Amino acid sequence: MLTAMLDREPDTVTDRPGLLVITDKGFASKEFETDLAMHGAELLRPSFKREKRRKASHC
Question: Is 56 left (phi over 0), alpha (psi -120 to 50) or beta?
């Protein structure tokens, strides 16, 4: 849903440089993260046990 919103209203991100989207582990998708980055936003979510610790992740 968020990706569709950003596609429809790209100013949501471009008007907010450095936008940080904070989510839970349910938003773990390389495609989703790449799409956010293409819109100029960064994703912050907890790391899974099996993955390398993510930037600024304490979980």
Answer: left
